[in-house]
Specification:
Blueprint: H1 2-8, H2 16-23, H3 27-41, E1 46-48, E2 52-54, H4 64-71, E3 75-78, H5 84-92, E4 99-103, E5 125-133, H6 143-158, E6 164-167, E7 171-174, E8 177-188, E9 194-202, H7 218-222, H8 228-249, H9 255-260, E10 268-272, E11 277-285, E12 291-295, E13 300-303, E14 309-312
Parallel strand pairs: 3-4
Antiparallel strand pairs: 1-2, 4-5, 5-9, 6-7, 7-8, 8-9, 10-11, 10-14, 11-12, 12-13
Helix pairs in contact: 2-3, 4-8, 6-8
């Protein structure tokens, strides 16, 4: 399937005979693979008698050179890898940060708290940005919120009519369902020199998947096939500027904007820690990025980091 997509990615017509010869399959098998592209990935394959098949517009695959030109840092694109965070960790041993890693497919994509991240090929965005932490571990406070806010800004600009929102600490919601997630991992000594690997998964053009929670994609909500190269470019450029501000000034400068985008602001929530479950009303986030919850007694508590789970009280 991926080889066929690579062939059609130029936007030109290719005859069934030429495709079959390139892939080493029969013309009947070519037809079945074309049909699979349409059904499983929802791609608009055009057919023209005497000329063959083509994907209009081209650029259905991630373009390393195009992305690198926009983001002004080294970019590596894998056809398939276990996870972009793991690939970035291995590259860090021989490459100076910052740099960006992307993959068309992940075979062992990971989300927060050890969950799997479903990663079908050539439909979504799976990326890891490696960024140096130059001064102190405290600079990481609120970082996942800044990353989510950068993505929120870009998507609001591109698709202003969508009902987008942020969920503490690492999710972007679309129509109330998960559309993107963030996973931060530290490499090195947090008390000395270290790097943060900012892993981001975005459901872009995916239409079918077996996922154990409510999910959606940008395509499902907007009814548009989105150009992933453009989205990566815009997101990373936006994120770079916000990271510079965050690492020099902290999260406090983003706090009010993040709270305006907070999908669960003021709602009744349950916060689960390793030892207890606390019920209250979500009051916002602190200058450090910690979650503020107002308890029934009126006391406010701040939660940050660790294995904390946040749910609405009526959710199971």
């Amino acid at each position: 399937m991926f080889q066929l997509l690579q062939l059609l990615n130029d936007g030109q017509y290719h005859s069934g005979e030429a495709i079959g010869k390139h892939l080493g399959i029969s013309r009947a098998a070519v037809w079945k693979r074309i049909e699979a592209l349409e059904l499983s990935m929802g791609l608009p394959v055009e057919r023209l008698k005497g000329k063959g098949y083509r994907l209009p517009q081209g650029q259905w695959l991630l373009d390393q050179a195009l992305i690198e030109q926009a983001v002004a840092m080294p970019v590596t694109v894998y056809q398939s890898t276990d996870s972009t965070n793991q690939a970035a960790t291995l590259l860090l041993a021989k490459q100076a940060a910052p740099f960006l890693v992307l993959a068309e497919q992940q075979t062992a994509g990971r989300g927060r708290r050890g969950r799997d991240w479903v990663s079908p090929p050539a439909q979504n965005i799976y990326l890891s940005l490696v960024w140096p932490v130059k001064h102190s571990f405290a600079q990481l406070e609120g970082l996942s919120l800044v990353v989510g806010l950068a993505l929120y800004r870009v998507l609001k600009q591109r698709l202003p009519d969508l009902e987008l929102g942020l969920k503490w600490p690492n999710d972007l919601l679309l129509n109330g369902s998960k559309c993107a997630g963030i996973l931060l991992e530290i490499v090195g000594d947090p008390s000395d020199k270290c790097h943060v690997i900012i892993g981001v998964g975005i459901n872009v053009n995916m239409q079918q998947a077996e996922i154990d929670q409510a999910w959606t994609s940008l395509r499902e909500a907007s009814q548009q096939l989105l150009n992933r190269n453009q989205l990566v470019q815009q997101f990373i450029v936006e994120l770079q500027g916000m990271l510079e501000q965050h690492f020099s000034q902290g999260f406090s400068g983003f706090r009010e904007e993040w709270q305006r985008a907070n999908s669960w602001q003021g709602q009744a929530v349950s916060v689960s820690t390793a030892s207890q479950v606390i019920h209250g009303q979500l009051a916002g986030v602190a200058d450090t990025g910690g979650l503020i919850v107002t308890l029934d007694s009126g006391e406010q508590r701040v939660f940050s980091g660790g294995e904390i789970s946040l749910r609405k009280q009526h959710d199971s």
